[in-house]
Amino acid sequence: MTFGFAPSSAASTSTSADLSAASANPLARLLEPSEWAAAGIPLLRNPREVVSGLHSRHGPRPATAIVAVLDPDERLLASASFVRRPAPADGWMFRNALLAQLRRVIPHDLRRRTPVRTAVLLYCREGDARWTEEDGAWMWGLRDACTLHGLRCGAYITLTRDGWQVLGEGRGGRRPSADSTPEPFAMSEVPPLLPRTGGAASEVLRRVAAR
């Protein structure tokens, strides 16, 4: 599904410290490629499969972000896509948008001592595959959103007319690209679960697994 930017629960529950930070220089809320590489982001075993699966599922066009949650075997648990509004790149705002989408599609893992699920971000944009300040803001936002949702921060992937690129890893390919037509692709997914009890969390899991 595709969602636009809208006032999120993350934004409405922001602390005064968050609001103060939001008024500061947005350039402080981005990660340089060297910082991202030093953060110990786990490598995807099969990035082409992940990218092709998300492209087939969401059919992104430029300015579309796709956040996906993978289990330890890199099977898709949940994903959501949304369109970025035209505005200056700001990691704080990107964090709020990503966190809102994660809260919509999958329960948090904050009770775990160590995260076992990983969130990855695929962003379709104009331009070439070289790092931009906008990419740095998405990296900052993804890392912060994962911390607040109890997830491991995974790969950040750009999708342009030249193809896809996993930033910080040097891996990429020509297809799919921002101009590609989505093709049927069997991305590995967790089998549907039969909830033992009712409740909101069980209903969310049931609906996510059915997608």
Q: Mind explaining what this structure looks like?
A:
Residues 168-198 are annotated as: Disordered. This protein is α/β, with parallel strands linked by helices and 211 residues long. 34% of the residues lie in helices and 19% in strands. Strands 1-3-2-4-5-6-7 form a seven-stranded mixed beta sheet, sandwiched between helices. The longest helix has 17 residues, at 133-149. It is globular. The N and C termini lie close together (10 Å). The model is unreliable at 1-16, 18-23 and 192-211 (pLDDT under 50).
Give helix % range: 25-40%
N→C terminal distance: 10 Å
Major beta-sheet overview:
7 strands, mixed
Cα shape: globular
* SSE ordering: EHHHHEEHEHEEEH
Weakly predicted, low-confidence segments: 1-16, 18-23, 192-211
Radius of gyration: 16 Å
Secondary structure layout plus pairing:
Blueprint: E1 2-4, H1 9-12, H2 16-22, H3 33-38, H4 47-58, E2 64-70, E3 76-83, H5 91-105, E4 118-124, H6 133-149, E5 152-160, E6 163-166, E7 171-173, H7 200-210
Parallel strand pairs: 1-3, 4-5
Antiparallel strand pairs: 2-3, 2-4, 5-6, 6-7
Helix pairs in contact: 5-6
Region (Disordered): 168-198
What can be said about this structure in brief?
With 211 residues, the chain is an alpha/beta fold. It has helices spanning 9-12, 16-22, 33-38, 47-58, 91-105, 133-149, 200-210, and strands spanning 2-4, 64-70, 76-83, 118-124, 152-160, 163-166, 171-173. Residues 168-198 are annotated as: Disordered.
